[in-house]
Give the backbone structure.
Amino acid sequence: MANRAKDKLLRQLVMANRIFAQHGVLDAFGHVSVRDPEDPARFVMSRSLAPNLVTEDDLLTFDLQGNELNGDTRRPYGERFIHGGIFEARPDVQVVCHNHSPSIIPFGVTGVPLKPIFHMASLIGTDIPVWDIAQEFGDTDMLVTSVPMGRSLARTLGPRRVALMRGHGSVIAGAAVPEVVMAGIYMEQNAQLQTMAHLLGAGQVRYLSDAEARLMGQRCSEPLTSERAWEAWCIEAGFPNDR
Ligand code: MN
């Protein structure tokens, strides 16, 4: 039974890579991981590969410090420390996505906070922090390439679902693959819409209130909502179902 649950999760991980690539949340870069349901001190993600090419044969298993555990010598993603850092800090998190979703980048560099302006983006929450790698690590190539960097990012994320990374991208952390995919796709849409609203409204934008975002966020996490979207996106990405 445990194995069947794990098999399904790994298939979902592959589909998440493809769906995110189709929706422009991931391009040739960025990655998704899942915690190993059989050992919470491990996580699974693709070898270094463009997300739209990922298959189950490409998956590697790591400990939370980013060490590969099965002697597989294929090249891992350089930024796998993001995933280990978040899984280490957040026992509730089973799925992590790091992406360079383009429309959110301005919100990481201007001080204008990314916030939900329409109900479908409620999962991102109304309190999205920005992690600035330079604050702790000075001038770098902007990449999260060590355990201390991954832990620093996880501290900024705190208990939230989303954190932006200044001049780079974002991370999304959640309890299930469909939830993280939904948050990622609607975060990108929200960023586009929020930018339009700012222009139209000359900076005057009415956001969802904290309570509205919380109530709709709960609804988006329910199977009725997240599975409808997941089913549609799977078919679009060429997978008839996730079983
Ligand atoms: Mn990156």
Observations:
- The chain has a mean pLDDT of 95.
- The pocket of manganese (II) ion is lined by residues 29, 79, 98, 100, 168-169 (CB under 6 Å).
